[in-house]
Task: inverse folding
């Protein structure tokens, strides 16, 4: 009795795996023939890598600056030389009048203006008035912070005076900024690890929800429902190929990151791939959930986009997590990308192992379980 | 009615509502096995919804149905292995070839033994040999339909549910298709086919006429035609006249159809002297036409059945 039951289970499992494999093989075949999707699998990571790696630069450098040096003394020239040496600004214009400087700024050609008054030395020595005026184009993000940084720099320290010396003679303190893990402060090193997550959440959610909704839209699902194919077999079979695609994309990002941007993997590659697998699964779960909400591929696309925006904005990929309002931080906790970013930066840049990032892994696991539970409950083998 | 064993399908008070709309309205069915049984009705009469409930795809709102004695609600999975379903819309994968589609379906049904041989035999039966490597999306309507039927019958189901299978194919393909259906029925399969073509309905062993979700007539095509609740007259020589406009308002007239040179008039069977009144009317308007009583066609059955339903409904 137990034996026959066992064999019955074995046969059932065999049949189930056979159907699952058939769905996966069919999916891969269709994917290989869908040139647009196939191109996106490779194209999206490449485009994003180049975009974020080369074009987007979080550390602001070479700001086009116009200087109006009214003093034109040896001291003021030294001051300008020091500003230049920071590499934060690039002196593009040396103007003869304040109006010209104004014009350059108004036209948006100069993002920053530095005005050195003719009594620069006297102000440095004793005056309570500001020594130098820095004009900032406030319409551009993150420039104001840069200007504040410049102003705080202990310029002309050899002369024992800072730009904001004020009434009291303060000995300017030399502030040393050391950046850990990314000593050269290269944006690529910060961005590439997080890009793995961004690219995966984009493609995984988009492709899977699209692939499932497409079957519904084209009427394939009506036929599938009438066959012995189980809903779990259908869902898992359809998702499996995308796990492989996610791993290919991860490898692509790592390879390009290493070749073009010299982004290191300090921790273990195996840990990195294991954590990535977990994130892929969580993203596929989200895609599955989206597919149960959407009736058409267009709706699926819109919904996928709706999940993508907060992921990109709130996950700590673009903006530091600490600076966000509490509500946003709380919301970010729900997003798998937030946790994956912590994991991937830890493993790739700080050499953390999986034990050290287990809270994040656990949160991804909870997210995956929740998505699957909702999706399975919603995905009926019926039309109504 | 000749008995062909236990009914393959039986339904009692089968009902399906979509919101406020009742798509299928308390339908009773007893469909014998080994026969071709047709659902005849216009679009929106509940044919597709009934078929979908029978294969467990939609839940009945009321009533119940059994296929092979199994409940379509509780035993849907067990029923699925024994039935083949061909949806109205082509539902195989357009980016896969004929062979790839058939192999995929074979895997889903867990076909044992020599699967390739079974597929080859289906290819032969349904004339698909030249289409083996062709993607389904590039096939003609008739080719798609043959591929769909080959896929639906690949696992040799006992019951075949076909939802308007010939709506997108040419007349020759329709004829070929029906020949194949008869071969399948000869091999013992029960076939339930929905259609809105009278000629197809006439070829069925049994027929149910559906209108607005209700079963309005049932029986063999012959019985339905013999038992039609109307007298049928053909009027010849009245073409090009105002005769149809004159005849339609007569109280006993159920329907008037123009068939080329002839007018076909359906009259209430219980009205007396209908034939004489028609002749008198034509003579009064000096229309030199002949009036002759004739046998009812399936279309007449359909017109009477749906007309009666509409009267009853309002």
Result:
């Amino acid at each position: 009795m137990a034996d026959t039951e066992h064999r019955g289970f074995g046969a059932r499992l065999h049949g189930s795996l056979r159907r699952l494999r058939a769905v996966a093989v069919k999916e891969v075949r269709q994917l290989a023939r869908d040139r647009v999707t196939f191109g996106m699998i490779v194209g999206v990571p490449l485009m994003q890598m180049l975009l974020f790696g080369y074009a987007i630069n979080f550390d602001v450098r070479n700001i086009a600056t116009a200087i109006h040096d009214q003093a034109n003394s040896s001291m003021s020239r030294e001051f300008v030389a020091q500003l230049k040496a920071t590499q934060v600004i690039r002196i593009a214009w040396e103007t003869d009048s304040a109006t010209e400087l104004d014009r350059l700024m108004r036209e948006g050609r100069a993002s920053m203006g530095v005005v050195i008054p003719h009594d620069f030395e006297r102000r440095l020595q004793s005056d309570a008035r500001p020594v130098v005026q820095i004009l900032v184009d406030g319409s551009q993000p993150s420039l104001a912070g840069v200007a504040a940084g410049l102003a705080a720099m202990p310029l002309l320290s050899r002369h024992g005076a800072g730009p904001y010396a004020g009434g009291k003679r303060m000995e300017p303190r030399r502030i040393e900024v050391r950046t850990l893990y990314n000593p050269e402060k290269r944006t690529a090193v910060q961005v590439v690890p997080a890009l793995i997550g961004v690219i995966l959440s984009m493609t995984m959610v988009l492709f899977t929800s699209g692939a499932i909704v497409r079957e519904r839209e084209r009427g394939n699902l009506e036929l599938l429902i009438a066959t012995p194919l189980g809903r779990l077999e259908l869902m898992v079979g359809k998702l499996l190929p995308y796990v492989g695609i996610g791993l290919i994309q991860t490898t692509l990002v790592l390879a390009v990151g290493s070749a073009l941007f010299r982004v290191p993997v300090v921790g273990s590659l195996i840990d990195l791939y294991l954590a990535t697998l977990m994130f892929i699964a969580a993203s596929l779960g989200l895609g599955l959930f989206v597919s149960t909400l959407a009736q058409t591929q267009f709706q699926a696309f819109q919904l996928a986009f709706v999940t993508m925006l907060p992921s990109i904005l709130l996950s700590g990929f673009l903006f530091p997590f600490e600076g966000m309002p509490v509500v946003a931080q709380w919301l970010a906790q729900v997003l798998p990308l937030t946790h994956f970013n912590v994991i991937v930066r830890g493993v790739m840049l700080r050499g953390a192992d999986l034990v050290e990032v287990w809270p994040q892994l656990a949160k991804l696991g909870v997210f995956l379980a929740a998505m699957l539970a909702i999706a399975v409950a919603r995905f009926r083998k019926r039309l109504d | 009615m000749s008995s062909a064993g236990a009914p393959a399908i039986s339904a009692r008070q089968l009902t399906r509502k979509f919101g406020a709309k009742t798509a299928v309205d308390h339908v009773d069915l007893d469909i014998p096995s080994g026969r071709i049984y047709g659902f005849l009705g216009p679009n929106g009469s509940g044919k597709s919804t009934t078929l979908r409930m029978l294969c467990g795809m939609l839940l009945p709102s009321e009533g119940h149905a059994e296929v092979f004695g199994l409940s379509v609600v509780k035993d849907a999975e067990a029923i699925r292995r024994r039935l083949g379903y061909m949806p109205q819309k082509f539902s195989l994968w357009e980016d896969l070839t004929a062979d790839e589609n058939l192999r995929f379906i074979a895997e889903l049904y867990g076909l044992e033994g020599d699967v390739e041989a079974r597929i080859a035999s289906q290819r032969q039966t349904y004339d698909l040999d030249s289409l083996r490597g062709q993607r389904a999306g590039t096939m003609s309507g008739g080719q798609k339909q043959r591929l769909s039927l080959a896929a639906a019958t690949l696992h040799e189901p006992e019951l075949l549910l076909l939802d308007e299978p010939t709506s997108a194919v040419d007349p020759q393909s329709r004829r070929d298709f029906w020949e194949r259906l008869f071969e399948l029925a000869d091999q013992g399969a029960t076939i339930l086919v929905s259609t809105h073509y009278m000629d197809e309905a006439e070829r069925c062993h049994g027929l149910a006429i559906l209108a607005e979700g209700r079963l309005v007539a049932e029986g063999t095509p012959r019985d339905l035609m013999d038992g039609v609740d109307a007298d049928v007259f053909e009027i010849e020589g009245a073409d090009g006249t105002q005769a149809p406009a004159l005849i339609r308002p007569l109280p006993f007239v159920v329907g008037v159809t123009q068939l080329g040179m002839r007018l076909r008039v359906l009259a209430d069977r219980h009205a007396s002297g209908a034939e004489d009144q028609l002749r008198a009317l034509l003579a009064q308007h000096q229309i030199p036409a002949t009036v002759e009583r004739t046998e009812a066609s399936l279309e007449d059955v359909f017109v009477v059945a749906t007309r009666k339903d509409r009267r009853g409904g309002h």
